[in-house]
């Protein structure tokens, strides 16, 4: 009798994920296609440390072959490290350049482009339906950052309303406003994370968490606190 095949054996296998080197090669091809300067800079980052290692070995090894090899190996390892750093930065910039100007581009930065010290959401806190202009909010050690996506004229009303709301709820927390759009004073999409990281720190880790939770809870229930109340100094009432 023919052996029956079990349903488990007939089920298709999930596609195998590409390996690390395959992923890096795909990222490199995408980056080189978008940014023509990526390849020369990567080669320069690789070859300069190697050349420095060779020269250091020739002049400092004093004829010791082992020392010469070590200098070259160190230069090669440093060159590979610099090459990967250049590739990572160029790939990130190339990826952002492909989505720059599209609705939701700032949300991609909020999701994957910020450091862990920032608390942000991929979804905007305010959107204008006709123009698709939006406002995104992030909380970090620099306080609250509002990012308008679109032209300044389109996002001004949304940003001003959100800034007044945050200032009423958190009067002692600094608020920074940035714009990503076609205007001359706007910040390029790939520089948003760097610009936010340069903001002067004014909150510690616990305060960042408290501010973020307060803003999220207000977004759910819409219950503001009275004007002039500092959320960091609010004490729980005594039980009766």
What is the element layout, followed by pairings?
Elements: H1 7-10, H2 20-34, H3 38-60, H4 65-99, H5 105-112, E1 119-120, E2 126-127, E3 134-140, E4 143-149, H6 152-169, E5 175-180, H7 192-197, H8 205-221
Parallel strand pairs: 4-5
Antiparallel strand pairs: 1-3, 2-3, 3-4
Could you explain how this protein is built, in words?
The chain is α+β, with helices and mostly antiparallel strands. It contains 8 helices and 5 strands. It has helices spanning 7-10, 20-34, 38-60, 65-99, 105-112, 152-169, 192-197, 205-221, and strands at 119-120, 126-127, 134-140, 143-149, 175-180. Strands 1, 2, 3, 4 and 5 form a 5-stranded mixed β-sheet that branches. Strand 3 (134-140) and strand 4 (143-149) form a beta hairpin. Helix 2 packs across helix 4 and helix 3 runs antiparallel to helix 4. The longest helix has 35 residues, at 65-99. The termini are far apart. Mean pLDDT is 81; it is low at 221-240.
Q: What's the N-to-C terminus distance?
A: 81 Å
Mean pLDDT: 81
Question: How much helix is in the residues?
Answer: 40-55%
| Whole-angstrom Rg | 26 Å
Q: What's the quaternary structure here? A: single chain
* Broad shape: elongated
Q: N-to-C SSE series? A: HHHHHEEEEHEHH
Give unreliable regions as ranges: 221-240
Number of helices: 8
* Total strand segments: 5
């Amino acid at each position: 009798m023919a052996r029956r095949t079990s349903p488990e054996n007939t089920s298709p296998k999930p596609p195998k994920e590409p390996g690390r080197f395959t992923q890096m090669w795909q990222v490199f091809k995408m980056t080189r296609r978008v940014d023509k300067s990526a390849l020369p800079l990567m080669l320069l980052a690789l070859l300069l440390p190697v050349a420095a290692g060779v020269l250091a070995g020739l002049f400092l090894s004093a004829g010791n072959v082992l020392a010469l090899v070590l200098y070259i190996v160190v230069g090669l390892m440093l060159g590979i490290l610099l090459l990967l750093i250049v590739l990572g930065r160029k790939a990130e910039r190339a990826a952002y350049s492909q989505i720059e100007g599209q609705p939701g581009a700032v949300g991609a930065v909020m999701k994957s482009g910020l450091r862990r010290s920032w608390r942000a959401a991929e979804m905007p806190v305010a959107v204008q339906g006709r123009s698709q202009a939006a406002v995104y909010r992030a909380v970090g050690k620099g306080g609250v950052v509002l990012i308008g996506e679109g032209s300044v004229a389109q996002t001004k009303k949304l940003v001003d309303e959100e800034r007044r709301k945050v200032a009423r709820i958190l009067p002692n927390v600094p608020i920074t406003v940035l714009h990503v759009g076609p205007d001359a004073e706007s910040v390029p999409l790939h520089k948003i994370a760097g610009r936010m990281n340069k903001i002067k720190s004014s909150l510690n880790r616990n305060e960042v968490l408290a501010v973020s939770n307060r803003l999220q809870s207000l977004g759910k229930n819409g219950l503001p606190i009275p004007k002039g109340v500092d959320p960091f100094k609010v004490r729980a009432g005594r039980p009766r």
